[in-house]
Amino acid sequence: MPESVRPNDLDKAARSELRTLSKENADAVARHLVMAGRLVDEEPEEAHRHALAASRRAGRVAVVRESLAITAYAVGDFALALRELRTFRRISGSDDQIGLMVDSERGVGRPDRALELGRSVDRAALPLEAQVALAIAMSGARLDLSDARGALDELEHAPVDLQRVHPWSSTLFESLAAVHEDLGDAEASALWRRRAERADALLDEVGEESTTVEVDTEYETVEPKPEPEPEPEPEPEPPAADGAPGESGHGSSDDDRSEAEGPSDEERGRGPALDGDPSTDGADAARGEASVDMGNGRIDDEAVAPLGVGAPSADPGDDVHGPEAEPTADEADGSAADRPAGSGE
Hints:
Strand order of the largest sheet: 1-2
Distance between the termini: 167 Å
Shape: elongated
Order of helices and strands: HHHHHHHHHEHHEHHHH
Number of helices: 15
Helix content: 40-55%
CATH architecture of the domain at 1-94: Alpha Horseshoe
Number of strands: 2
CATH class of the domain at 1-94: Mainly Alpha
Strand content: under 5%
Radius of gyration: 53 Å
């Protein structure tokens, strides 16, 4: 213990909690607490040893248990930190360290318990610094559950002050930058990171962590990204002219009409004689008619005819023998010999 460390270096509110101890013991505990506070950021292991020494001397004092919890958290002993924080909360009745409790629950791998614990307190009743610490811890628990949007919502509960720089401003701005990065918003992430750096620089100029710095110039603002314009809907194609072939649903072609009307009489073999060979064309028509009749559940005997039936049947009044044959040359000569001379034919 350096001789330069004095009991009066301890915060006045903390010293008042040591009044229940003897003066010698209270002075020794106060010096250990001062050293723990000075070393916690740079040498957390050494700070933790001083907090343990103070706890052995004054284990029933709330500020001592609080200091031990903070140094345990700093060295990564989250189970010890959580236990000491619960003791501090029970002794003091204060929720000021609720953010550290939530983060310790995260440290032991219980983000769901962390969120439940954070929701159990009235945020509005907490000091500003405690509200910020709780929002950051709750945001971290949301990130543990892969809920970046929920993490941003938690940070929006924090009192973000862009006109003043507080000791916790840099940590809050860094948390906002990390969440925006997870959400894929690189522009907003870079903006919050610049704000964090600026807050650190302003606090370094003042040199006291507990000082709030007024910001003369306005902070940068994030310009809202323009929403993409909706793509124009394609114009409907104009309907084809009535009767135009090849367009579905508009007009009809000759093929379409022929399909709708069905086979003609000539195709069925009932009309005039086909120009082609009746032995094939008429047979095809006859077979086609026979197949239709069979599809209806009956066979028409007349439809099943030998090849060549496709030609129309003869009319009784017609000459079944066909056109009259031309006479031969001999017959013509004979006819001329039989005629009397001078007949004039």
